[in-house]
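Async update (no meeting this week)

Hi team, since we skipped the sync, here's where things stand on the single-chain job. The sequence we agreed to prioritize is pasted below, unchanged from the tracker. I ran it this morning and attached the output directly underneath so nobody has to dig for it. Comments welcome in thread, and please keep replies under the output.
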Amino acid sequence: MTEKRILVIKLGALGDIVLACGPFQAIRRHHAEAKITLLTTPPFVDFLEPSGWFDEITTDTRPPLWRARQWIDLRKRLRAGEFDRVYDLQTSDRSGWYYRLMGPGRRPEWSGIAPGCSHPHANPDRDDMHTIERQREQLAMAGIENVPDTDLSWVAADIARFGLPDRYALLVPGGAPHRPAKRWPAENYAVIAKKLMDQGITPVLLGGPAERRAADTILGACPGARDLTGQTNLADLAVLGRGAAAALGNDTGPMHMIAASSCPSLVLFSADSNHAITAPRGPAVDILYRDELADLPIEKVDAALTIR
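Output:
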């Protein structure tokens, strides 16, 4: 019997990758004997390679339409894969174009929303569903049932290099630089950091280079906090989440990773995003919402923060 070839498309961003881990696992289980290839973007390759869900991971640089040579190269790679079925978990206009690139001639079976595909997610309300429920329904329509929750137990990282104390909490004060409305003021995080210190819990600051100013604001008010800004990779986030007493952060990718690692997580949402559709999932996730995050009182956040 010829080995089946499966392609899974999930390009990002980080939160979407975390929410797709249950579907990744379900696809691997359903196609246990197949060769499964993941098409994703470069930031997620090192993180997903140890999962065991994929036999091969290939990357997509998401070229603009005017980069004809890159589109031609992508088309060659897609057609050369000779895939029997594609699970398009990105379900974007871009990934819909990839269905077109598979032609002319024989196209693989395709689970997604591309016009004319063999296994469409035919629910007109799909855009109003949380990502988890939307992907579960999409896969059910393609014959895959029982999609599990995200399981990151396979993720490994050496966080001993950070020298953290036994009791620490994670603070994620940043977010996408082009969406400042998704950020609770750094000065408010500083107050929470000091309250944690008073309880014998060390605040640990997480983020990338864009969070440098927010981290400095918090450290200025709470010098006992630990600053890991710019020092962690994706696997570190998951393992740090396993050991943390609590986590507080904005609607941003790292909070998805931390929440999925079973850490009690409080995530702050503004009107700039819809938590009913995009909120992190995990066994201990709480959401606080204000149209304007600057209007969210420190006292309300402090009272809602669960510490284990």
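Quick observations from my side:
The radius of gyration is 21 Å.
The mean pLDDT is 96.
Reply here if anything looks off.
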